[in-house]
Design a protein that fits this description.
There is one protein chain. The C terminus is likely disordered. Helix content is 32%, strand content 23%. It is an alpha/beta fold and 284 residues long. It contains eight helices and eleven strands. The strands form two sheets. The chain has a seven-stranded mixed sheet with strand order 7-6-5-8-9-11-10, sandwiched between helices.
């Protein structure tokens, strides 16, 4: 019986086969450090690429310093989008209240990820106060190819950016507020979401009652109205879950709610519309 001849393998050969990849990673890190060091000396702006989107800072001042209490409170970036049919480039202004998720961590993402069992495939979702985080795209993954997300915000730059950054047939962005619901039929959405309510809702109970009633109107039977707070509000101290739950209880005539606590902090309070509520003819 003959044995198949084996070619002797030098000790450590398997490790050497893995070394080129590790070496390439180290070389890439070294090049990046050298580039950053040279840029710092020459005061050259830095560039980042996130999912094909290129961000080029307009000044060398670090973002953390620009947003510090003693800083200017704003840092600008030139943005170019990928693809042969790419939308035109634009300049964005990162501020203390307008935070771009590609450039810094967003407090909204943990809140939206915590809703993965509440927002289901095939649903139609309305989001009020969408901001510039990746919340609508995250919701898009929840609803799947058969669902859709309509995101509304009052900041024009945020809406312009979102339309270019998160292009998808399942996502629609509109500039405005709750008045955009005026043309919607009762029960038009399976989930209605509002994140970080504006200060006037905290200060004016009548305005809050009117807004929540309008949001509740467009929730379909069996659907949910969700209020999320991603950070403590200095204007409304106390447990956010209890406060949001009380808002819903007061505005929706005794409708109960449940709280979801995201791992990254904040709270989401969910009120579910009874299945017995009749959906008006023509509502989708």
């Amino acid at each position: 019986m003959s044995r198949t001849a084996r070619t002797p393998v030098a000790l450590g050969a398997s490790r050497r086969r893995q070394r080129p990849d590790a070496f390439a990673r180290r070389l890439t890190r070294l090049r990046r450090r050298v580039r950053d060091a040279v840029g710092a000396i020459l005061h050259l702006p830095r560039t980042w690429t996130v999912e094909g989107v290129r961000y080029r800072e307009c000044t060398r001042e670090p973002l953390t310093r620009a947003l510090a209490p003693t800083g200017e409170g704003v840092k600008e970036y030139d943005v170019r989008f990928p693809g042969l049919d790419a939308p035109p480039p634009m300049t964005i202004r990162f501020t203390r209240t307008r935070r771009y998720a590609d450039l810094a961590a967003s407090a909204r993402l943990p809140a939206y990820r915590a809703l993965d069992q509440t927002i289901r495939p095939g649903q139609r979702v309305f989001e009020l106060g969408c901001g510039v985080a990746k919340a609508p795209p995250t919701s898009r993954h929840f609803v799947g190819p058969s669902g859709g997300v309509v995101a509304v915000g009052t900041d024009r730059e945020s809406i312009r950016y979102a339309r270019r950054r998160y292009r998808s047939p399942q996502l629609g962005y509109e500039h405005g507020g709750a008045e955009t619901l005026a043309g919607e039929l009762d029960g038009s959405f399976d989930t209605v979401l509002m994140t970080d309510a504006p200060s006037e809702l905290t200060d004016d109970p009548s305005a809050r009652h009117e807004l929540l009633a309008e949001l509740w109107r467009v929730v379909a039977p069996g659907g949910a109205l969700i209020l999320c707070e991603t950070a403590p509000s200095p204007r409304a101290p106390g447990p956010a879950g209890e406060r949001l739950g009380a808002w819903l209880l007061d505005a929706l005539e005794g409708v109960g709610s449940r709280a979801i606590t995201p791992s990254g902090g904040g709270v989401c309070v969910v009120a579910t519309k009874p299945e017995s509520a009749e959906r008006p003819p023509g509502a989708s």
